[in-house]
Amino acid sequence: MHPRLTNRCSRIEPEPPPLLYAWLARGTWFGRIYQRYLGDLAGNQPQGARLLDVGTGPGVLMGQINRKRPDLSLVGLDKSYGMISQARRVSKGLGGPLMAWVVGRAEALPFPSAFFDLVLATMSLHHWDHPVAAVVEIMRVLKPQGRAWIYELNRDASLRDIKNYAREEKLPSMLVYLVFNFVRWHSALKEVDFAQVFHRAGVPEWQLQQVHHIFWRAEIQIDAFSGRKRLQ
Ligand SMILES: C[S@@+](CC[C@H](N)C(=O)[O-])C[C@H]1O[C@@H](n2cnc3c(N)ncnc32)[C@H](O)[C@@H]1O
Questions:
Q1: Residue 165 is assigned to a structural domain of this protein
Q2: Which domain, by its residues, includes 220?
Q3: Does residue 204 lie within any of the structural domains?
Q4: Is residue 75 part of a domain?
Q5: 20 to 30 A from 175, CA-CA: which of 31, 63, 95, 163?
Q6: Ligand 1 pocket test target in 53, 127, 186 with most atoms within 8 Å of CB
Q7: How many domains is the chain built from?
Q8: Is it the case that residue 176 has pLDDT exceeding 70?
């Protein structure tokens, strides 16, 4: 028995069409969001770290990480062959020590244990069929002292949060409000969603951070000394 997330997406499980999604991902709206993830990520990784992006979609964010941090080994995984085809196309010409695209499921990651320094998942968890199994897998593939960052939209973001986000992005508040409300019921998550998933995955400690006003970021850290896996 696995928990049902409170967003509607988890019940109807629509798949974004890869071509359309790849086009959107290269556009301004997604670009601004990726810049925020990138700002969080790029300065925080040790030289030569190994990073896995679960539910990478068309791989646009991975391409941006590669341009900013060509020393990192990057692996993008998605269950959709169409998304991975787009990622291969979009990333042509990019280099680095390792840049690999893998068709696979978050719930059964095709990698050895303790393999990655960082596991990333952006706007993907709310699509996963079995988020508990996926979180267990993510913890398995993390190295001792590795960590995972899971980003999702915050369904409980307030009007003030939306306005602050719009102000920082220099966008009309009304436009951001309308777009956010259009996606919030289908895609955004509540704190209770993370609580259920992490509890059932056996994560002993966790907390969520509200970042960039309208997002959640859950961080899973592997504690090298006790071997415990925890969220902060
Ligand atoms: C909304 S897109 C997000 C793509 C990208 N991470 C981004 O931020 O633009 C969600 C992605 O998760 C993938 N996905 C859904 N369920 C998955 C699963 N169980 N395992 C791996 N990927 C999955 C979908 O195919 C889709 O590409």
A1: no
A2: 9-153+188-231
A3: yes
A4: yes
A5: 63
A6: 127
A7: 1
A8: yes
| Model pLDDT for residues 190-215, shown as the tens digit of each residue | 999 999 999 999 876 677 999 999 99
pLDDT in the model for residue 231: 47
Stated length of the chain: 232
Pocket test for ligand 1, best of 37, 40, 52, 79 (most atoms within 8 A of CB): 79
Structure tokens that stand for 199 in this block: 């509890």
Q: What is the pLDDT of residues 109-122, one digit of tens each?
A: 999 999 999 999 99
Q: Which atom of ligand 1 is nearest to the CA of 121?
A: 6
Return the ligand 1 atom nearest residue 105 CA: 20
Give the DSSP H or E segment for 42: helix 28-42
Q: What's the token pair of residue 56?
A: 């990478």
What spacing in Å lies between the alpha carbon of 5 and ligand 1's midpoint?
A: 16
Answer whether 231's CB lies under 8 Å from 203's CB.
Answer: yes
pLDDT above 80 for 97: no
**Which protein residues touch ligand 1 with a CB less than 6 Å away?**
15-16, 25, 54-57, 61, 78-80, 83, 105-107, 122-124, 127-129
* Residue 106, C-beta contacts closer than 8 angstroms, at least 6 positions apart: 54, 55, 77, 79, 121, 124, 128, 131, 133, 134, 137, 138
Instruction: Give all strands (DSSP E) within the chain, no chain letters.
Output: 50-54, 73-78, 98-103, 116-122, 142-153, 208-211, 215-222, 229-231
Centre of ligand 1 from the C-alpha of residue 126, in Å: 9
Q: Is residue 177 part of a domain?
A: no
Which domain CATH number covers 194? 3.40.50.150
